Structure prediction request, 174 residues.
Amino acid sequence: LTTYYQDFFYETGLPPVATDITINGNGSTIERDDGSFYLFRLMGVNDFGILTLNDLTLRDGLIDENGGAALVVVDGVANLNNVLVLNNRNITAFSTNIGGALFNYFGTLNVTDSFIIGNTTTSGGGAIFNWGGDVNVSDTHFSANAAPIGAAIYHRYQGGSFTIDNSSFEYNRI
Prediction:
């Protein structure tokens, strides 16, 4: 991806998911081109959207506002199955820049059999930031994610839940 789509998610590489969509990646990659002049997240799911990603990589999202350089979920649902979430960055020093890779805002985020590696933010939740939504993580590996608060995960409770089952964490740093 070299340019962005402007919507309520700010700048996003792909149009917002506003219906039920499944992407079977078969090992494909969705990534922001390193040569792109623009800063943008890769994907967003709104309150009408249900996104299922199977067997793909989300990499190199780069944002300087809001949260989730790979994916933001706002009241919608996202299911990540066998997804590599790699090297996504949220780079500005504002406290609203939360979730280096994934930001769930009052939605539902399910992550299964995945790897979340090398994602960073200048605020909270290098890999995942959950604000008032429900997050379920199983059989997933978190490695080398970084944030000043919650190197891998930050859960801001406002009626939401965060469940982790049979997952591993290594080399995440504050």
